[in-house]
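Appendix B. Chain record.
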Amino acid sequence: MRSILLTLAFAISAPGAALAQQSAVPETQAREILKQARAAIWDETKSKPLQSLSITASRRFARGERQVEVEMTLDALLPDKFLQTDVLYTGVGFGVTAMRGVNGSQAWFAGESNDGAVDVAKKREAGAPPESNSKQPGGGMGAMLGELGGVAGVRRPERSMEQSIHAGFARLMLVWLGATPSSLPVEFTYAGQAVAQADGKKADVLNVVGPNNFAARLFIHPETHQVLMLSYKARSRNRGAQEASVNASEAEVRWVVSDYRNVNGLNLPHQLVIFLDGQPIEEVTIKKVKINPSLKPNKFERQASIEEPVKDIKKKGNVGARESE
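Structure tokens predicted for this chain:
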């Protein structure tokens, strides 16, 4: 795995991301590129509409000197309902679960440890500091719950937790499906071409902008029409107070996808590696995909308790996460 990460890091080195040309008709060209990309993902002329998804995956990221592995489930009832559940269970008396969801225009985040339920979103919006737990290596329980709900080690560029949740699902859907939830409509324009791979091959680059200062760049292979990468600006959690200020320079985050596999007509990348300033900080590997499963709308409503969803995940045998040296 380390060799794969190093290869990817080299493949998207900073000089290779410089745009090579501009288009005279950026909106028209962007629409054509997106049309081809979405057809390569799911061709609705050959299959019935993609209405829902259930994905089981594992997340791995560093926390201090430890590697944390988390079981992740994602349910999507398109176009505007999403639920991600992250479970960390050690089997030695310590467990953490975080859920974040989008239900139309509403977004919510809740977390629970074996010490009791924690409504992270409400506390953070109220300005309360994260809870601390001196027994937990590398930081408090609140910090762990925050990492499970977003990208490890990256400060959200959005102003509120709700905006961050909407933006997080939008980025995930862009690299997986080439589209965003209807709750976060975006505009695409063609920016030109960039060298996005070590072998010198180019990628078509689309600028993506939306509400609440949402901005990203989407890199698409001009021949296979597969999404290769998404990039955006953020700040590292580990930087000093001066750099964390409003005027601080921002870091570049890159989501690189690979290992495309066809699952019942859906051509989905099964590997996602997230880089911060060229260094890999998180990896997501898809294990199982269900196409158009039956999902009830009330599944995506804000959870008063996350005990039942967690029991359901454990019953299915999806919890094998661990924190290891």
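Further analysis of this model is presented in Appendix C.
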